[in-house]
Design goal:
single chain, 278 residues, alpha/beta, Rossmann fold, 7-stranded parallel sheet, 7 strands, 13% strand, globular
């Protein structure tokens, strides 16, 4: 059933989402696949990042949650991580700032003494009918959050990553089938897909790099960046005929971070409800 038409202010919050998204709070079961590992997850306060944080914790990982300012959502993520018996460190701030990206990694090392998984997930988008509506500031912001932060975080993380470490980027079906109204976002997601070239650069170090390409997933990003009528029909266009839930992404991120995915590198995994990617 379609979600009701609705809108939020950017960046959006889980508490105002109708219906509530499923992050696996009641359903995800862990099996120790990430025991003893430490993960940084950007955008870990809500949506896909929140689902990944919950799954990682239940698989045995401690989690650093990077988020902009959504304190209530971040605290809820922390609650679920700690309920799983793992530590959660919350780091608010704008990853459009390279210095903040470096501080996230530095804080992780200070708190845990190691880093095993870097999930570059946070993203920004806005919907526009004309390119003329996209301001210079919005263009620069979209690139800074969606792709430049990936570079700065990865560069800062590399000296601390050991063989078996995993870098994961959240790409999108938009990278292959771009909607014109989401042009800046779509091109950054194509860039995230290209960052899997890190697999070739880092293979000799035993570090893997992959990306996940989500389709229409129900997160606060949707009602805070799209018109209400688009929100209402969001997800109906894919073969499964419905929006996806963040919980349905988490198992893929677990696989790519775990030793069970030890030979998966340079891959791009589609979780799109049947919509193909190139």
């Amino acid at each position: 059933m379609a979600q009701p038409a609705q809108q939020q202010e950017v960046p959006g919050t889980e508490s105002d989402l109708t219906p509530k998204a499923d992050h696996g709070e009641q359903s995800y079961r862990g099996y120790g696949r990430l025991e003893g590992k430490v993960a940084i997850i950007t955008g870990g306060d809500s949506g896909i990042g929140k689902a990944v944080a919950i799954a990682y914790a239940r698989e045995g990982a401690d989690v650093v949650v990077s988020y902009l300012s959504e304190q209530e959502d971040a605290e809820d993520t922390k609650h679920w991580v700690e309920e799983a018996g793992r530590r959660a460190v919350l780091i608010p701030g704008d990853i459009a700032d390279p210095a903040h990206c470096r501080s996230i990694v530095a804080t992780t090392i200070e708190e845990f003494g190691r880093l095993d998984i870097l999930v570059n997930n946070a993203a920004f988008q806005m919907s526009h009918e004309s390119l003329l509506e996209v301001s210079d500031e919005e263009w620069d912001k979209t690139l800074a959050i969606n792709i430049s932060a990936f570079f700065h975080l990865t560069k800062a993380a590399l000296p601390h990553l050991k063989p078996g470490a995993s870098i994961i980027g959240s790409s999108s079906v938009q990278s292959d089938s771009p909607s014109p109204e989401l042009l800046p976002y779509a091109l950054t997601k194509a860039a995230v897909a290209s960052m899997t070239a890190l697999a070739q650069m880092l293979g000799e170090k035993g570090i893997r790099a992959n990306s996940v390409a989500p389709g229409p997933i129900w997160t606060p990003l949707i009602p805070s960046t799209m018109p209400a009528d688009v929100v209402e029909s969001f997800g109906e266009q894919v073969p499964l005929g419905r929006v996806g839930q963040p919980a349905e992404l988490a198992p893929v991120y677990v696989l790519l971070a775990s030793d069970e995915g030890s030979y998966i590198s340079g891959a791009r995994i589609a979780v799109t409800g049947g919509k193909p990617i190139l």
